[in-house]
Design goal:
By secondary structure, the chain is mainly alpha-helical. Helix content is 74%, strand content 0%. It contains three helices and no strands. The longest helix is centred in the last third of the chain and has 22 residues. The termini are far apart.
């Protein structure tokens, strides 16, 4: 996903030669991918915690 995000930003910069790289613009344009990555990390963490919790049936 990170590779796709970088490629998309490079394409944007190639299409608009007057713009230069800026971290703020990169984050603003890659907001969807950043949310997607954080969502996957969150779901993975929750699944890991749930699978490690002891299940007691009483």
């Amino acid at each position: 996903m990170i590779n796709v995000m970088v490629r998309e930003y490079r394409t944007y910069l190639d299409d608009h030669p007057m713009y230069h790289f800026s971290l703020g613009d990169f984050i603003r344009r890659g907001r969807f991918y950043i949310c997607l990555i954080l969502g996957v990390v969150f779901i993975t963490f929750v699944c890991l915690v749930v699978s490690l919790m002891p299940i007691s049936i009483q």
